[in-house]
Amino acid sequence: MVTINGENREDFNNLTVAEMLDREGFDRSRIAIEINGAIISRKQYNETLLHSGDSIEVVSFVGGG
Fold it and tell me: Which DSSP string do the residues of 1-65 spell out, in sequence order?
């Protein structure tokens, strides 16, 4: 089980960050990812695997004026 933005998820173990983002419908150009307190660069999305016990935070950037 992994935790994504505070929600426990059973079906995300052994997915890449890219697969998780696609499954959840995130716009990759407007987010930042943190796994277990470490920021993951966009270059790492396709090679970083999620593992049981991981805590993932997905932060969306919002523009405004």
Answer: -EEETTEEESTTTT-BHHHHHHHHT--GGGEEEEETTEEE-GGGTTTPBP-TT-EEEEEE-----
